[in-house]
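Sequence in, structure out. Go.
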Amino acid sequence: MPLSLRKSQKEATRQRVLDAARELFENRGYEEATVREIARLAGVSVGSVFTTFASKGDILSQVMADRLEALYAELDKVVPHLRGSTPDRLRSMFAIHFAFETRRTRLFLAHIAAAYNWTLAPTSRPYGRNPRLRQIVRDCLAEGVQRGDVDPAADLDLAVDVLMAAYAWTYRLAAWEGADADAMSAVMDRQIGLIADGFRPRHA
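Output:
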């Protein structure tokens, strides 16, 4: 078989696996979905799945990585045009996240839950291990230092951790109450206000 054809078939298999996994994770949940079910829905063998991905966790990571590219493309366009204080900019950024992720809330809940799965391989990228999201939030805070509304002595990495923890925890409202993006953004807005009290400049 020509190398180009083999590569094309491998890519097609990979995409079928990702499409099947996305559907199962969204409708059945990450824990309930099995690799055998993913293979069956994708129309490939279980062996083919494991030839392409090391684990179910890696499949979830790739599903989310593919989705998040669209989110980051949107943020790249919007973030340079955000106005207002650093807390206001953070509120806008997280509102965009909520609007995007609530299109597939169950899938994002699985992404968050995977962060607490101690069996995941280091190659997996659950919520929290994504350096792009952390960098976007940190850049916003660093720009706030330059503008003068974030304390230069503030621990920006700690602030990022607290903001990301608040964002993930707010999704309990979607899981427990079926909250939509607007409802969760309203809660996150208040949390950002409280967190901002910790990084505002201290005046003598």
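Check: The domain at 65-199 is CATH 1.10.357.10 (Tetracycline Repressor; domain 2). The mean pLDDT is 91.
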